[in-house]
Amino acid sequence: VQLVESGGGLVQPGGSLRLSCAASGFTFSSYAMSWYRQAPGKERELVAAINSASGSTNYADSVKGRFTMSRDNAKNMVYLQMNSLKPEDTAVYYCRAFLVTVNYWGKGTLVTVSS
Question: Could you give the CA distance from residue 25 to residue 17 in angstroms, rounded to a whole number?
């Protein structure tokens, strides 16, 4: 099983980034997927989630209207489009797959929002 995040980097406030998560080794379409983030000195928090069936999404209040999560079951990929980035969005972003009691995590990708 692998979840590999990519797309992180340094961006100026107000800029955009698109994170990707490539999944392999499990039945991707059956799993709900989510993005979490962990800022320095803080606990890991849920950013966005998308279910396996309808593709419905939900977001943390702090990112609503700025971030959009999507998935492509044909490619075993999930994405996080991040717009209007703020310095407080700086964190390591992790991809998570879950189904009932099964959890898989990626190793994360660093997003730094700074001028």
Answer: 27
